[in-house]
Amino acid sequence: MPRDPVYGAKGTPKTEEELSLLRRSLSGDLAAWGEIVTRYKEAVFGVALGITRNPADAQDAASDAFIRAYENLNRYDMSRKFSTWIFTIVANLCKNKLRRAKFSAPLKQVGRLIGGRDPAKIVYQESRDALVQEAVERLGDKYRPAIILRFYADLDYKEIAEILHLPEGTVKTRLHRAKAQLRALLTEKGVAPDAQTD
Amino acid sequence: MPKLTESNDRKLEEALRAGLSGYVESQSSRLVGLEQRVLDELAARRRPGGAVKRSLIPSGRLVPVAVALALVIFAGGLLAGLQLGRLQPTLAGGGGLLFVMAYPEAKSVAIAGDFTNWNKVPLQRGPDGIWSVRLQLPPGRYEYAFIVNGTRWLPDPRASQIVRSYGNDFNSVIYVGKRGETL
After folding, report:
1. What element of type H or E holds B6?
2. Whether residue B74 sits in one domain with residue B38
3. How many domains does chain B have?
4. Which chain B residues are closer than 8 Å to A53 by Cβ?
5. A161-186: pLDDT as tens digits
6. Residues B34-82 pLDDT 10s
7. Cβ of B22 and A128 within 8 Å?
8. Residue B128 falls inside a structural domain
9. Alpha helices in B82-165 (DSSP H)
10. Residue A57 contacts B, CB cutoff 8 Å
11. Which of A41, B95, B135, B179 would suit a FRET pair with A118, their CA atoms being 20 to 30 Å apart?
12. Contact list, A107 vs chain B (CB under 8 Å)
């Protein structure tokens, strides 16, 4: 399922329609907010899942993020990207939970087989997804959020720094180190190419 | 550490993007009905008394609870001038909102919430075990909790609203108006 470019692409400007939905939401129109939730829910859930490593907790965090965002919509600067703001909220929620250390153990989920697709391709993709998931889960809490925001949410360094309340240089360092760890883990499994000099 | 080539680095990034998207997609059934759950909760919060009923303290193991509550009431009488127990802006000269927790046995009490990015901010111990801190908050709705002795998370028994966070966790809620007052 391709992701809606409205939340995934860097610097994607909000459309007039989306601005209208946000303004209507701000004035109390819950139906408009429901449309915003529909547009962003997968991205928000994905960020939460990447940070918490637990689908049930990610589901709760996504719901809670939209509730909090609605109740604090008057604090949102409409000239800025909505995705950055909502990701900040969900990342904070997840980090809070990690601090409380009450997340249950991560579940090892392997994707389901879905009929109608090339079985070999499905097996490859699911194997790849599971290995990437496992590798990302093995990253420390310090590194995982940056990786998720960079490679799932497609955010740039500045946006990640804003969301995680870190200097941009720290984000770059964390991403560099996290990628080195991921490369080592995934190379073992044959998912990523070995690091070699040309 | 081996030097990464540009093309290999790109392949790793591609694998990460595809793998993460695929993993999230495999869990997307959890998103069915999320809109309705969000809207139902928001609608419930709009109704008077519609928020999740507070469960003052989540754990029966907390022996000091009754003592703490009694002390809050007692201290409320003693410190009425400071409007103890209500998260009101403090009177002239203070500024900010006064957060208070009565917990004489505690070795430390901190507060964490949306407004601190869930980082702990210590409360100062006062006479009779009353812990307090004054915080300046911009307008908005905030969730928060107290942390006793570094590990025990408790909602504020004096908050007007307590909501479920996750599982058996509860957060207190505070609404701050444009002039810094509680709503």
Report:
1. helix B6-26
2. no
3. 2
4. none
5. 999 889 999 999 999 999 999 998 88
6. 888 888 888 877 655 444 433 333 333 333 444 444 444 444 434 433 4
7. yes
8. yes
9. none
10. yes
11. A41
12. none
